[in-house]
């Protein structure tokens, strides 16, 4: 048998997501994606992901399996106060470390519950049970503490499954622990760099054709394409070794940018609504939205951005024809003549919205999201967009989207925000 | 060592999803949820799910691990024509079965490509390489064939990762094979039934306390609890054996219902917006929504439901104070006196919305979604709801939500729809 090489394996990680709803409940594990991203920055590669139910024996099996193949194991979930939460017990079974009530964890738990005007019950008290020799990881946003320990040369980390709790603890506590363990082991892995480019307006095959040949097979970088209702994503992911130099990766990134041109709307984690918000802020412009078939989705997306109250003035959802007339002054005769789903009505909605609100630019959407309501001449998926700006020409666009009701709404909202983005770019000061 | 019992383990399954984009690429594995659903109908429980990259050694490790703990192994992905597709080779490595070109599979592949006007290249020819002793699974909608084999008392099944190809092969070929293998092993498992109950308004610990003791440890059913921003979900999942009779399961379900009372807003796949839509439709009522901090999310959710145009009249997103006055007639003095985030303004928004639109009932939301904008007396997460109905008393509610901007918006939208649901229930005809 070859000797153990625990130091090497600190660069290999496995996530174990716990929860029966992840096995059969229609819910997917997204925590592991965030963990892989954060670990990539440290140069640690997530090689395996496992999902098990709330079953003490199965969790124990998963932990033992992971310990045989990686050096960093991260469990998420199963730390709650209810009877089916048994990650603590399963880790104790797997590692042989006994559980005991940890005073500092219990005090923190009591303090947190007191903020919510409550005292711990028996189940919540269980949340302060921590295996011998483990270090408590404070939960800055919820009640369940996490913990980490060294075991058989591996680092075993247990975090809650609630995404925002998991994420805060990953960033605040887990990343620093891993950094210092890597340093202690004299490992200086190069970060796994993943560059992401978001495009809108081209089908996947056309994006593929545009970037074909850019990445040679000999280069230590993986090119990825991923289609979704909001566009096609292009990614460049470096491998931990051989190392691709920063300048060479930047040349590749520039190649992607120049081939995708203005179809590229964002990079990295930036979203379309953040891009639009940044452009509106820089140009000191305000926006208002008149939505029919998107039903409020564009307003919702614009206001997901912190600070959006500085440029989002208002929105209206005018589902009924009466609302289009009442709220936006669209003439009933125009609706009768062209139909509520028409370029003419989209233009009138945007104009009415801008004139009544006094904003710099107004967007409008009217369409047929389906599944009902389509006709041979106006099928499901037909969407008209309008844009009306102070002192500028107005614009309308026609789209025919495929997909179910939710997908049509998503595509229509993305197209509307992209129309606004392009309008703002044309007006941007040259840099 | 106890004797192997391969027959028993046919009731335990593991899925292995293959693809590097599932490790780091921001994409989650949804194939395994479909497999768990289909297997549940057959009485086979998916106990473990694994995800590995396009790495021959890692896939081999995952297959060997699965063979040690379950009787049915389903791999998805890695059967494509490109160099990174190596599931065939990894299965051959793990099982010791040699790969050889299978004539019937190659003919089917050529026929499929010919339909698309193409001939197989070297990579596509590799798709017809099948391990010795495996049975080919025809792909009715794509080019990559799958295969299944018996190995060490387990069934090993390999399917493409493209969801609609995987799904067709699962339904047309895999389910019949499993049925006949279960019959041959004289196993008649009962289907796994999963009942889901959605609650809103109670923290997880309180829901847990309410249903405590209902499911005795001796009963062959698993009780699950799951908290999310939109509430706590309770589930009852039967085990393949011993069989819980239908009437006994129904008695348990009735027990959950009577303990959760009106905190239970929906069962199964139904959503809050569908429940509200159903009640509005039955009572021939219309609704309008005045949103500030939720930014259009309530309108978006209400209009996700097909046919919602029958009862959703309109919405306004009044982010600025000016918009609250313009669109809803909220007096500027009221905003100055109490602040935009106050019960008084919430009430005035709902009243203005209903009076101007003429709907049966209007909802309003005003709050501080964060992360900025909070003060000591009005912290981030403070939300006021208003409801105003024709001829009825109006209502306001105060909430203090925790979580980030997105979570506060989700919780506020759920609370607003729940307020509407409760109002509609009070007015429902007794059944």
Automatic annotation (TrEMBL), chains A, B:
Spans through the membrane: none
Superkingdom assignment: Bacteria
All residue ranges annotated as the MoaB/Mog domain in the record: 14-180
UniProt cross-references to InterPro entries, sorted A to Z: CinA (IPR050101), CinA-like_C (IPR036653), CinA_C (IPR008136), CinA_KH (IPR041424), Competence-induced_CinA (IPR008135), MoaB/Mog-like_dom_sf (IPR036425), MoaB/Mog_dom (IPR001453)
Gene3D superfamilies hit by this protein: 3.30.70.2860, CinA-like, MoaB/Mog-like domain
NCBIfam families: cinA_nterm (TIGR00200), PncC_domain (TIGR00199), PRK00549.1 (NF001813)
Protein family: Belongs to the CinA family.
Name of the protein this chain belongs to: CinA-like protein
Organism: Nitrospira japonica
């Amino acid at each position: 048998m070859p000797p153990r090489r625990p130091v090497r394996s600190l660069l290999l990680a496995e996530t174990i997501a716990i929860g029966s709803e992840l096995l059969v409940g229609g819910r997917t594990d997204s925590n592991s994606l965030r963990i892989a991203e954060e670990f990539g920055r440290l140069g640690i590669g997530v090689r395996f992901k496992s999902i098990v139910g709330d079953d003490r024996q199965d969790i124990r099996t998963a932990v033992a399996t992971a310990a045989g193949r990686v050096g960093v194991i991260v469990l998420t979930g199963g730390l709650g106060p209810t009877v089916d939460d048994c990650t603590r017990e399963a880790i104790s079974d797997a590692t042989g470390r006994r559980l005991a009530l940890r005073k500092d964890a219990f005090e923190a738990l009591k303090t947190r519950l007191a903020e919510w005007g409550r005292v711990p019950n028996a189940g919540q008290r269980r949340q302060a049970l921590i295996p011998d020799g483990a270090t408590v990881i404070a939960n800055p946003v919820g009640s369940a503490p996490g913990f980490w320990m060294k075991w058989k040369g591996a680092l075993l980390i247990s975090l809650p499954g609630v995404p925002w709790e998991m994420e805060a603890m990953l960033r605040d506590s887990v990343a620093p622990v891993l950094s210092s363990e890597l340093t202690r082991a004299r490992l200086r892995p190069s970060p796994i760099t993943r560059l992401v480019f978001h495009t809108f307006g081209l089908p996947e095959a056309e994006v593929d054709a545009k970037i074909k040949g850019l990445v040679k097979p000999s280069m230590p970088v993986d090119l990825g394409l991923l289609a979704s209702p909001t566009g096609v994503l292009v990614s460049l992911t470096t491998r931990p070794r051989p190392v691709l130099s920063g300048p060479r990766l930047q040349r590749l990134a520039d190649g992607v940018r120049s081939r995708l041109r203005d179809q590229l709307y964002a990079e990295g984690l930036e979203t379309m609504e953040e891009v639009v918000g940044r452009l509106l802020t820089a140009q000191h412009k305000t926006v208002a939205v008149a939505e029919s078939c998107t039903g409020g989705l564009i307003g919702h997306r614009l206001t997901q951005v912190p600070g959006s109250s500085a440029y989002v003035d208002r929105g209206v959802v005018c589902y009924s024809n009466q609302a289009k007339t009442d709220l936006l002054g669209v003439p009933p005769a125009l609706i009768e003549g062209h139909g509520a789903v028409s370029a003419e009505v989209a233009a009138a909605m945007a104009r009415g919205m801008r004139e009544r609100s006094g904003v710099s630019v107004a967007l409008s959407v009217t369409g047929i999201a389906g599944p009902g309501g389509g006709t041979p001449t106006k099928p499901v998926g037909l969407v008209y967009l309008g844009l009306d700006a102070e002192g500028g020409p107005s614009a309308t666009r026609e789209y025919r989207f495929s997909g179910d009701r939710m997908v049509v709404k998503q595509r229509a909202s993305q197209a509307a925000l992209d129309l606004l983005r392009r309008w703002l770019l044309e007006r941007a000061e040259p840099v």
